[in-house]
Structure prediction request, 115 residues.
Amino acid sequence: MSNFSVAFRPRPDDDIMVLDLSGELDAHTAPEFEAALELARAGGHSRLIVNGADLQYVSSAGLGVFMAFVEPLRAAGGDLKVAALQPRVYEVFDLLGFPLIFDVKEKEEEAAGAF
Prediction:
């Protein structure tokens, strides 16, 4: 079984919620990520940053979760930004054209400034 976790971290001084991902986001762990995003939305958060500094792997199932939430967040006046991806994970995002859909930034501060 893959090791994966999502931790919520509100940023001080703004209304942005950060989801720190660690481990491997794949078909087995995608439902956990989906539940975390849904919990953030249900809590009234529409401006989210996914921090991938500790994310080691992402599969197509994990990427599908990103796709499922970007439009509803934007419709609610927010967005889903991505920050601090490991080079290997960024390659997968880039290969599939995700930087054209999502703001993918090197640092969390850059992602926060993009709202």
User: Anything to note?
Assistant: Helices lie at 30-42, 60-75, 87-95, 98-101, 108-113. The chain is about 40% helix and 30% strand. Residues 4-113 form a domain with the Transcription Regulator spoIIAA fold (CATH 3.30.750.24).
